[in-house]
Give the backbone structure.
Amino acid sequence: MSLLSDIRGPNDLKDLSQAELSQLCAELRTELIQTVSKTGGHLAPNLGVVELTVGAYRALNTPPDLMIFDVGHQSYVHKLLTGRHKDFHTLRTYGGLSGFPKISESEFDLYGTGHASDSLSVALGYVLAQQSAAANGTSEQSAAELPKSSHMVAMIGDGSLTGGMAWEALNHIGHTGANMTILLNDNEMSISPNVGALTSYLGRIRLDRRYWGKREFVQKQLERRGKPGKQLLDVGIRVRDSFKHLVVPGIIFEELGILYVGPINGHDIEQVETAVRMAKQIPEPVIIHAVTQKGRGYAPAETNPMLFHGIAAFDVETGKVKVNGDAAPSYTQVFGEALVREAEENPDIVAITAAMPQGTGLDIFSEHFADQPERFIDVGIAEGHAVGLASGLALGGKLPVVAIYSSFLQRAYDQIIGNVALQDTHVVFAIDRGGLVGEDGPTHHGVHDLSYLRSIPGMQILVPANEIELVDALHTALRLDGPVALRYPRGSGEGLTVPQQPSQWPYAQAVELKRAADKDVALLAVGRMVAVAQEACDLLAAEGIGASLANMRWVKPLDEDYVISVASTHRLIVTLEENTVCGGFGSGVMEALAAAGITTPLLQIGTPDAFSAQGTVSQLFAELGLDASSIAEKVQTRLQQEAATTEQRAKEERATSTETATAEPTPADPAANFAEKLQAKSAPPFTNPLSAGKSLD
Ligand SMILES: Cc1ncc(C[n+]2csc(CCOP(=O)(O)OP(=O)(O)O)c2C)c(N)n1
């Protein structure tokens, strides 16, 4: 008899016996392993929080009590306990359950997370809003909308606790004394082993056998906190004599005004439940330090929690990833290997990651230069610091390469502007996951970087179209001055053989790939869209439409001479990018045309001004009209519109002319000829059911 399928909400956990709880945890683990083995996802983090989530929910009354999850990659157990068991097989698929909490998915998902270290700020804001409503009274309606007497628990990992935003929140939480619980899930891991002084600090607490693992101690400690009541407790909190400093673990939190409880065994439901129950009763902020094992209960994940942090589909028996043997090396790998070759030549190169050595390919670098550890820096989940640090390193004579995913680099926007661009330091930003990333969905799509970087004075932005170009772009970026960004997508390259000796790109020059005899349209593409545009060119050619094509390579500085030259000779300019059309590459082309006073029609194709869904990249390309047939269809439609407009204008001009008012267009009229050509060729136009009605124009 399955217990899991009968759980409708967290309150259903309350009546379960110890034996049933053990069975439930086993069922949860089986479900996690079976589902993620098919869909891929964050397995090890979730296996590690099974008891932590169950124990916390047993102590809470949900709703109105609520839990919020930092990053949210460990929220699968929460999803399974909050009415989503039936749909769990759709995890991370197109139209299915999100791999992260999502407000629109469930009333139990208080907040849509995906990026690290923000849970404490959000939780505090929520608590303060409730406090304010309770203290001041709001309008009848909004007071009614707020859940009554709810308690907020924020679950945050030791990795995410390294992020600056979490410490800004701790600072504020201690100051406000807000009644909330921080459930610190300490598994000693970020994606890779956690780094930094805080980690060493937590490690010292963990290793102190006076506290860890002794249930009596936990019990006593909790009693000391809770039982004597608030009055005693207040005294207890305030009296911070030196002896207590020596013996009470977690003093760093206590000094900030946050009561520390722990360390407790995060796999002991009773300990977790007791701790959360006590924390709920204490009208102060409390941090419960729970020690857990990442990947718990599945041997391959316990042995290799890094691999199983976020894993593709795998074989449950062997724990081996089901790899496509023919897949070309990823852009990430090509970048990592190329940087090693460059750094062999240039001893000033220093590589920086913000807790993502594997994800960015810098693990290759760190292993290669293991004997020069000063050349590889992992700052933890601290993107802003990584960028500030890079600028200082550059000022000190180093050549820093900061490798960060496009969406996570958003965290460091101020540092990119103030610490790097304004100082004109030569920092190279290697921006991985530029474009649509697939199943991780909207929090992780890297579709804003071209826009947010393009507006920064002095920023140079290179967008390689394949893995050979990636190596060349890196080679080029390392030889420029000032801030330089190169951005490339997630996943496999095109399978091209990367030459050992890279080439340097001519500065701000596009590469024309095709010049059509009939200059109907010029496609200007960057990155992965170059290959798609090539296909679109072929489809257009089959329809008798002459399409020229250029790989623009440089989003900034733009090859304006080239843009102006094709705009002067073609009927339509089309820009193609895997970035939002708002302020991206196409906007750069538009600005260049406007500045030159050129009025050639422009069609900008990219991701829309909306958050894109999760799914495979090809599903998303089809949905967003970024695949070749959708592009060809849009181009054809736009050409027809332009031809019709031109013809209409010509008609109006003829009508106003007294001599030729009744004359028919002559066969030599180019607009009429072109309109005829399109009409003859284009009925019916390309059919793409997936893109119907979803034009991005
Ligand atoms: C701002 C930001 N940077 C990087 C990441 C990538 N990331 C996702 S989970 C994770 C590690 C989190 O470690 P921890 O909080 O300890 O959770 P665990 O997986 O160990 O349970 C990282 C670095 C992110 N989601 N957000």
The domain at 511-691 is CATH 3.40.50.920 (Rossmann fold). The first strand starts at residue 66 and ends at 69. The chain has three domains: 4-9+19-303, 331-487, 511-691.
